[in-house]
Amino acid sequence: MTERFSGRTAVVTGGGSGIGLATVRRLASEGARVVIGDIDPGPGKAAADEVSGLFVQTDVTSQEQVEALFAAAVDTYGGVDVAFNNAGISPPEDDSILDTGIDVWRKVQEVNLTSVYLCCKAAIPHMQRQGRGAIVNTASFVAVMGAATSQISYTASKGGVLAMTRELGVQFAREGIRVNALCPGPVDTPLLQELFAADPERAQRRLVHIPMGRFAKPEEIASTVAFLASDDAGFITASTFLVDGGISGAYVTPL
Ligand SMILES: NC(=O)c1ccc[n+]([C@@H]2O[C@H](COP(=O)([O-])OP(=O)(O)OC[C@H]3O[C@@H](n4cnc5c(N)ncnc54)[C@H](O)[C@@H]3O)[C@@H](O)[C@H]2O)c1
């Protein structure tokens, strides 16, 4: 394994599970000091212990707590080189626009979109001081495609992440700060398992549209985050980076 993050500090939100956990492991294996912000203290602390990192219990919808997360990274390790703003939710009650209530709509917007605003707002001043930084925001392939298996607030929140990321990537390009949006296709994580356990037909309806015929593994997303956050991606910013097994390029998929 290369040591692309030797001497660098990475903050990962939602680092206790799924894509975040796989990324914590990947970044640490490449030499990063990792700071995990997660609302759930059990898995979050376990992940931090596993990589000898730092856990800060954080609700990413709280400005105060998000500021404290990035401040803890700076106080403990001296800076923030990478921010992977990844925490997100996908509750089953977020469904067709006709059935999704305003409270569920707002909750999903807060956790998936407002959180990315808060994390970028907290991370960028630290990166400006360093004259360097890489931000990766987790959007989704649903931000670029429509789905008849609707999750209306989730889709809208990820579209917001995409547009915000593009703008930040452009605004801070000459200050050495790169900002990219990662758009995973369906990934085999607790988030997706929970959704499909509630409705197995949804899993089948989705699988048929994936040229590769399977969901992604969290490690396949983590390796892309590591690439985007590393100097190997030095000329990539403001991008919509799809890791979707070919879904967004497909018309008819193989049998
Ligand atoms: N799994 C997929 O198919 C898929 C596809 C595309 C995009 N994504 C996105 O990837 C990201 C990670 O998803 P995952 O599948 O790994 O999910 P997951 O449920 O496995 O993990 C999400 C983590 O975020 C944490 N979290 C939830 N609410 C939080 C809050 N308010 N504050 C802090 N932490 C909070 C959870 O405790 C958990 O550790 C999400 O943004 C999700 O929308 C997932």
Pick out its properties.
single chain; 255 residues; alpha/beta; Rossmann fold; 8 helices; globular; binds nicotinamide-adenine-dinucleotide
Mean pLDDT, all residues: 96
What is the helix fraction of residues, given as a range? 40-55%
> What is the CATH homologous superfamily assignment?
NAD(P)-binding Rossmann-like Domain
Class, according to the CATH hierarchy? Alpha Beta
Strand element count: 7
Characterization of the model:
Helix content is 45%, strand content 15%. With 255 residues, it is of the alpha/beta class. The protein has a single domain (9-239), classed as NAD(P)-binding Rossmann-like Domain (Rossmann fold). Strands 3-2-1-4-5-6-7 form a 7-stranded parallel β-sheet, with helices on both faces. Helix 1 (18-29) links the parallel strand 1 and strand 2. The chain is globular. The model has no long low-confidence stretch (mean pLDDT 96). Residues 13-14, 16-20, 38-40, 43, 58-61, 86-90, 111, 138, 140, 184, 186-187, 189-192 line the site of nicotinamide-adenine-dinucleotide.
